[in-house]
Amino acid sequence: MLQNYFKIAFRSLWRAKAHSFINVFGLGVGIACCLLIALFVNDELTYDTFHSKADRIYRVYGREDWGEKQQFLYTNTPFPMGPALKENLAEVEMEVRINNIGSQAKVGENQFNETVVVGGRDFFKVFDFETLEGDGNLALAEQTNVVLSERMAKKYFGGANAIDKVISLQLGETFEDFSVKAVAKNPPTNSSIQFDILISDLNLPQLYNAQLLTSSWFNIVPETYVLLREGVSAKMVESKFPAIFKTIIGEEKFEKSKYAPGLQPIKDIHLNTDFPAGIAPVSSAKYSYVLAAIAFLILFVACINFVTLSIGRSMLRAKEVGIRKVVGAIRSQLIIQFVGEGVIVTFIALVVGVGLSFLNLPLFNDLSGKQLLFPFNTFLLTVIGLLLLVIGFVSGSYPAFVLSSFKPITILKGSLRSGSSRQNVRKILVGVQLVLSIFLISSTLLMGKQLSFLQSKNLGFDKEQLAVIQLSVPRTGRLTKKIETGFETAQRFKTELSKFTDIVAMCGSSHDFGTGGWISLGYTDEKKVYRTFNMNVVDADYIPTLKIQLVSGRNFSDANPSDKRRAVIVNEAFVKEYGWSNAIGKKIPGKDFQDHEIIGVVKDFNYASLYTKVQPLVIVEDVAIPFSGIENVNTDASAIPKLIVRLKPGNMGATIEQIKSVWNKISGDEEFAFSFVDQAMARQYRSDQNLGKMVSIATLLAIAIGSLGLYALASLAMQNRIKEVSIRKVMGANEQSLLFLLSKEYVYLIAICLVLSVPITWSLMKNWLSTFEYRVDISPTIFILAGGISLLVALATISFQTLKTVWTNPVNSLKYE
Questions:
Q1: If 0-12 CB within 10 Å is exposed, 13-18 middle and 19+ buried, where does residue 531 land?
Q2: pLDDT band at 816 (very low <50, low <70, confident <90, very high)
Q3: Helices then strands (H, E): number in the chain?
Q4: Which of 279, 384, 468, 611 is the most exposed place for a label (fewest CB within 10 A)?
């Protein structure tokens, strides 16, 4: 019996090859999208779950509330935090502090810019990072030992055994030799903790002063992780924090700051945007939801094709059903038969989908910024099995019940007609397809418009042909000293590079663009109002090099020596924040700032991303001016000075080589690295750009699948109306009127679907656009254009079948009547 079912199913599918191809192709594409996005979502949701003790690992966060506008939440912590928790709480089994430092690494004659991770000695006891060679626990027990990742060991030593090899790392102003005692497997991509060079926290005294390491509770640097003992809850541990920290930092400071540390589960770090990013960036779960919705929409469109085509072909298979019922087939057997056909089509489509997803995984990785693999593990096999069962049964069940419900006597008498209920079901399903297609088209157009706006908006400075070179300064010491040393180095570069004609202008700056937030400073002014502003330390060439517009006052001048110690330039947002009509000659309100004067106001320029509005900004040549009167300092990016160089277009490659030659002359063996400002700023919107690309691809796929479905449905519809068309032609109808007659229902349907899709698109796109401070408007033109595209695609799709029916000779259609 089962063999007979399969035989009939394959014969039926082979007989309708075009429709079978449409179903297989559509479902295959939908399944491929589902598989790829399932890998993405699984990777996001399983971040940090590979640690065997993940349920007991927590990251310590801090919270302070000093009053109005002085609420702080941070996931980096003071250095004393970990040891204090371990010492005062028996519930804490182990603690690990982790922080990254920029360093130079020497291996033989080669020198590299590297990020070194300083980790606690229990690092490998708390976290499950696999070691391929050596013992990580023993390695971190000694100050001069180092653990390398697999990729870093290969970079430094090729295929040779790295154990006991020596590399030199710059800690402070000198290089220290470290012996490789372990090589770890590269950390998984879905790990919040990443490392390539790992050294013990025994090196901290060489990097930071004793006060910062032991008694400074309001300077945050490392991430602190704790491993709680089995059976201990985080809430129970947190309940003991107030008593502990009231004693440690003093009751007065504790009450004044409302100091409130807490514990965040490690598995919660990656997708919880309520907490600021620590060492690793935080991802938004909305991208997983959006991608899952895209996959569902494409698969849904393909399933609609399956159902509508099956219902459409029901008239052609009516006699088969009637004869099989006459010879004894019962309804349940017919249902099994037609559901079986659905499962067979789904299985074939599944094979196609797996192949497509495997082939397109590199492209998907590029779009999603992941490094996903295609493992045939339990998760993937479960997803494949669910897709087969759900799509096969759900998509095949409705047509099966429709086909099996035909009455033999009605079928064999030839009086069976396509019922209005089935026509309505098909129209509803096609309508849903069109609504989804119009929604995707309008969303794609709107996202493209917004992303184009981001690229073309006047930022208030000229970002083209600007190269940024990070200058080398000692890794330890006070920030003010590092900035001072950096500008001395910048001046040496400017002197040497001024000899090259292809360098138009250059300047020194503590911050560049697109690499993180600028230094944010906070203080309480004379009226007891808490104020915040951002700051950048520059030289006198900064404003002309970036072509920033001065709206009043003047720029810094090397001819005026007092500018370096007392001149300040602010932006329009700063002037507006303080309610001034004219800022020239004024001072930053606050009793503790050293002597200074505002000499100029620049037009607001977007030094941060367009997700946020321009904040008040202070530009100085002497960092001591703003630092002298502030209470809080916060920065997401290094304030170590950079050299910003404006290059003449046309010969940029040769100019970069000239800069590199000067770098080698001044910085010696240190690795030369540069970036372009326009590329760095574009990277700020990479996730939205990738989302836009994915929606565009989804739109094309949905249109392609929907168009194939419309084509097949049009062919079935025309077969049912060919005699009607022939009679109308005999009665004198011309081709234009017939074409309008056969196409008008699709035009009406698209118009209705356009109206239905507008509120959906408006709501979702308004929510997406709200993430940008600067954004385009949602105009009716977008929806008119989307509807027009859908109409053209639909008419182009059905026109061939429609015209074929119109051009049919009536004699051939009516000769048997």
A1: buried
A2: very low
A3: 28, 22
A4: 611
d(CA 203, CA 532): 35
Between CA 713 and CA 313 the distance in angstroms is 9
Residues 6+ apart with CB under 8 A from 171: 101, 103, 203, 206, 207, 475, 476
Q: Write down how long the chain is.
A: 817
Q: H/E element holding 325?
A: helix 318-326
Q: SS in 3 state form for 257-309?
A: HCCCCEEEEHHHCCCCCCCCCCCCCCCCHHHHHHHHHHHHHHHHHHHHHHHHH
Asked if 719 and 19 count as a contact pair (C-beta separation under 8 A), the reply is no
The string of DSSP letters for 388-400 reads HHHHHHHHHHHHH
Q: Which amino acid is at 467?
A: A
3-state helix/strand/coil string of 489-530: HHHHHHHHHCCCCCEEEEEEECCCCCCCCCEEEEEECCCCCE
Q: What is the pLDDT of residues 538-586, one digit of tens each?
A: 999 999 999 999 999 999 999 998 999 999 999 999 999 999 999 999 9
| Residues 714-760 pLDDT 10s | 666 666 677 777 777 777 777 777 777 777 777 787 888 888 888 98
How far apart are alpha carbons 140 and 199 in whole angstroms? 6
Whether the predicted pLDDT of 276 surpasses 90: no
Burial class (CB in 10 A: 0-12, 13-18, 19+), 173: exposed
Highest mean pLDDT pick, 18-27, 308-317, 406-415, 781-790? 781-790
Q: Cα separation of 135 and 140, whole Å?
A: 9
Most confident of 611-625, 664-678, 781-795: 611-625
Reference 521, options 567, 574, 455; nearest CA is 574
What is the per-residue pLDDT across 69-112, written as a single tens digit (0 to 9) for each? 778 888 999 999 999 999 999 999 999 999 998 888 989 888 88
Beta carbons of 300 and 3 less than 8 angstroms apart: no
Nearest to 534 by CA among 513, 558, 565, 564: 513
3-state secondary structure of 647: strand
**Looking at residue 426, what is its pLDDT?**
66
Largest pairwise CA distance in the chain: 107
Distances in whole angstroms, Cα of residue 530 to Cα of each of 141, 144, 181, 443, 577: 45, 46, 51, 42, 12
The span from the CA of 231 to the CA of 228, in Å, is 8
Residue 497 has pLDDT above 80, yes or no: yes
Measured CA distances, 3 to 10, 57, 337, 341, 753 (Å): 11, 55, 11, 13, 44
Tokens of 309: 């085509």
Question: What's the token pair of residue 524?
Answer: 């309480």
Q: Which helix (H) or strand (E) holds 52?
A: none
What predicted TM-score, i.e. pTM, was given to this entire model? Answer: 0.80
